[in-house]
Amino acid sequence: MVKNLSQPAIEVSNLTKFYGNFKALDSVSFSVNAGWIYGYLGPNGAGKTTTILMLATVIRPTEGTATVGAYDIRKNPDKVRGLLGMVFQEPKMLWVSTPWDIVNWHAKVCGLSTEERKRRVKEVLEALDMWEHRRKNVHALSGGMRKRVELAKVLIQRPKIAIVDEPTAQIDVVGKHRIWNMLRQLREEGTTIILATNELYEADVLSDRVAIMHKGKLLVLDTPKKLKDNIPGGDVVDIQLEKETPQKIVEQLKKFKEVVNVLQVKPSNIRVYLNQVEEVVPRIMNLFMKENMPIASIHMSEPSLDDVFAHYTGLTIEEAQKGGE
Ligand SMILES: Nc1ncnc2c1ncn2[C@@H]1O[C@H](COP(=O)(O)OP(=O)(O)O)[C@@H](O)[C@H]1O
Ligand SMILES: [Mg+2]
Fold first, then answer.
1. Smaller CB count within 10 Å for the chain: N or C?
2. Pocket residue to mutate for ligand 1, from 22, 164, 195, 215, most atoms within 8 A of Cβ
């Protein structure tokens, strides 16, 4: 497959979706270049699946539209579907099938020769740790296993554009790494990938661009590195206290000129975004000592995408997750 890196593979303009009176997606626009893994990151309820279902022409936009390849999702849904490989968040499967039957059938539909089909189906099911489960009835599979069957289909299809909705949800760490490697390989082979996820690390390590979504809106969009570099207060300090942090201390910390933001992660855990960390940390420790608040531990780090999310929303993604469903 020829890569054309200059041409957008997907162009989304003012895409909006209402479910009744509720606006699940609010005028979202972005474009995805051919050859990218495009991370679509946000907590539950951000509008990721809604976007994906519109791109896959499963549901219709209320306003706005998108083009996939050369085709408009409203005008040419059949053509759009022809370009796509999909991993749905909640795969629907024939309940009488087995993983092997599903993947083998898919390989047939994709036009693989008998010989190649045999080889590829085995290769992909093995790579996804599904080979020993290939004869099980799908009703006996866990959610994570069903996800792997969906992924196997896309890996065999090698579509021009793949849209994967939370591909590693309910999958263990080893499995996650395997899937990440396979998604990278798929990109190398020329597939453009939209990756919807609520996992910060997954979005960070895989994506060429990350769009951060919250409550139906696209907050910010850039390379993971630039997103992290551009938040003011480039140093992050996590302070774990033995007791609940008094509000008074939070207010005092905010008065330091180097401190950009203070986030209460948990009652006894605050995160401080600041500049000139080496100079400020001793002063912070003095402040806590003066207030007779023993520090249990202190941890300095580079900003993560969670810090980017927090910068724009005032919440960690975990907190947003709780309020998002
Ligand atoms: N069919 C539906 N009817 C009504 N509300 C829906 C429907 N699907 C999703 N929603 C709501 O739309 C918002 C966005 O959901 P979704 O797109 O699934 O988010 P995400 O995939 O980011 O978790 C949520 O508040 C969700 O409850
Ligand atoms: Mg979703």
1. C
2. 22
Q: What is the domain range of residue 273?
A: 232-302
Neighbours of ion ligand 2 (CB under 5 A): 48-49, 89
Q: Going by DSSP bridges, is the β-strand pair 22-33/8-19 parallel, antiparallel, or unpaired?
A: antiparallel
CB-based contacts of 286: which residues, under 8 Å, 6+ apart? none
Using only C-alpha atoms, the chain has a radius of gyration, in whole angstroms, of: 23
Gap between the Cα atoms of 152 and 166, Å rounded: 14
- 142/211 Cα distance (integer angstroms): 30
Where among 204, 228, 252 does a domain terminate? 228
Burial 225-258 (b: 16+ CB within 10 A, else e): eebbeebebbbbbebebeeebeeebeebbeebeb
pLDDT at 5 over 60: no
Strands (E), the chain: 8-19, 22-33, 37-41, 63-68, 71-72, 84-87, 161-165, 192-197, 209-214, 217-222, 235-241, 259-266, 269-274, 295-301
| Banded pLDDT at 299 (limits 50, 70, 90) | very high
CA of 13 to the centre of ligand 2 (A): 20
pLDDT over threshold 90, residue 126: yes
Tokens of 129: 């740790």
The 10s digit of each residue's pLDDT in 263-290 is 988 899 999 999 888 889 999 999 999 9
Indicate which CATH number applies to the domain containing 88. Answer: 3.40.50.300
Q: Which of 17, 50, 313, 325 to mutate to test the pocket of ligand 1 (most atoms within 8 A of CB)?
A: 50
Give the model's confidence band at 81: pLDDT under 50 very low, under 70 low, under 90 confident, else very high.
Answer: very high
pTM of the model: 0.89
From ligand 2's centre to the CA of 102, what distance in Å? 24
Lookup: tokens for 77: 């849904």
Same domain, 219 and 236: no
Does 19 sit in the ligand 1 pocket, CB within 6 Å?
Answer: yes
